[in-house]
Amino acid sequence: MGIPAAERTFTTVSTTEHPTRVNSWNGWDPLRHTIVGRATGTVVQAPEAAVRRDFPEDGFPLGTYGPMPEEMTAEANEQLDNFAEMLRRRGIRVDRPTPLDFTQQVHTPDWTHDSMFGCMPPRDVLITVGSEILEATMSYRSRWFEYLCYRPLLQSLFEDDPAMRWEAAPKPRLTDASYHEDFWDYYNTLSTEDQLDRVARHDLVLTEEEPLFDAADIARFGKDLFVQLSLVTNRKGHDWLQRHFPDLRVHAVTSTNTHPLHLDSTWVPLRPGLVLHCGERLADDELMKYFHLNDWEVVEAVQPVSWEHLPRLSFCSPWLAANMFNIDQNTICVEEKEVRIAEQLSSLGFEIVPVPFRAVGPFGGGLHCSTVDIEREGGMEDYFPRRSGRF
After folding, report:
1. pTM, whole model, 2 decimals?
2. Which of 238, 262, 277, 368 is catalytic?
């Protein structure tokens, strides 16, 4: 499968007036430089121990895989390109990943897998903490090589910014020992109560054979990082992050979602002192106490409009509506159809930038998923000076 010539290399803008600088400690300081993903080449993944796709009504019943429909890819790319251009018009530098042939079979000495995935959601793979960009381990075999889409850009950043730290977490082996055998066959037969019990104990598809985490399971609050234990992040992944960032406080958190996957549609920092919380997935009591102790307001998100109409081939929940992207602490990009959440945020004093983005969801997420901060103004702050419980 060929990649259009225009997408074989990342795009950038002139840095004559503002030299390249990697710096971001949170998701609300004024944005200067970001990555926006591409839908090009995305595939419905081949089944594997960690994940199964089942879209019988859309032509991909369980066990089948292959390229996303061309018309869907074109529409998603148009919305991604328009989003990138809107950011550029606001003076923000935008880089893009280099797509690969995601239909190809991939191999390591331990396994062979029949497909890759895509490069729409860079937030899953990369996280910027201060002057460091860290590549996550990833826990799907189909996504093991996805970091290669960002290597040309990361190499350029490393060459242009002498203060940048470029780090990669240990690449996992992802042998059968990393997964609970036949997890999905029995998990999906459990009651909601039993599933939530498994989530609370973090007894899910991943074993503790090796550190595993997706970058999108990490929420950044300056000196504090909150790491969700989920279907793609295990306790050893949290432990590795604690050791890797010894000068920060790295907290493990759990969800009341039966299928926890990425934190950025559940626990959404909006600005200092204010966080938006998905009303369907209540945070545990100690986490709430920690935020309240430090004078943070936790606002429950209103029910999303997307509850009423999800796109074809989408594996995202309706709470993708809360997957928003700050330009600064007063300005937030929201999917244009999510008028309820937009009205809620407006009542909290935010300027809303409506962005057409519904077509992008089936390619891996929303506005936050599709981006990675490279530079935001500001430095590391301690937003939680008072300690409590396990935090």
Report:
1. 0.94
2. 262
